[in-house]
Amino acid sequence: TVRVKPQAIQGKKDTRHSQALDSQQNPIQCKDMVKIIDGPFAAKKNEEEKQGEIKHVYRSWVFVYSRKHVENSGMLVCKARHLLLIGARAGSTRNELPTMNRLGMSSPNPFQSPRHNGSATPAHSSSQSVSGYSVGGKTPNHVGM
Q: Which portions of the chain have biased composition (kind: Low complexity) (predicted)?
């Protein structure tokens, strides 16, 4: 048995936005439809190509649900490079939005502003206090300001 403190228990890890790259370097993520073109689940002679919906992505491994696959309730685990995104154009990237740099404008960056001085107080300010540590009381040997 493993003993875990209640503080160490965390919620479920959010992997909905995890991505991998398919055989044509298209980004694939959960709920995408893919076709299996290589690997152990690829179509053999006189067989229809398997395709399905991505349920989970873990690094380069992709969990695909295919209705045509009878074993393991239709779940397949494939390498991402063995898949091809259905409906992807050759050499295109999805969710491509025009950026301000393409329009000839620069993005507003506060660190590039000439009025930005780095921090609110300079490093050698007289308002900073001297640090020390307590020698008695409830918290001995604790560093403070």
A: 125-137
Report the 10 Å Cβ neighbour count for 34.
26
| HSE (side-chain half, CA atoms, 13 Å) at 14 | 1
Phi, psi of 64 (to 5 degrees): -115, 135
pLDDT digits (tens, 9 = 90+) for 52-63: 999 999 999 999
Closest CA to 33 of 51, 56, 15, 57: 51
The pTM assigned to this predicted structure is 0.55
Residue/partner pairs of 37-44 with CB below 8 Å, 24 or more apart? 37/82, 37/83, 37/84, 38/81, 38/82, 39/78, 39/79, 39/82, 41/69, 41/76, 41/78, 41/82, 42/82
Residue with tokens 């300001």: 145
Q: Which residues of 68-90 are buried (b: 16+ CB within 10 A; e: fewer)?
A: ebeeeebebebbbbbbbbeebee
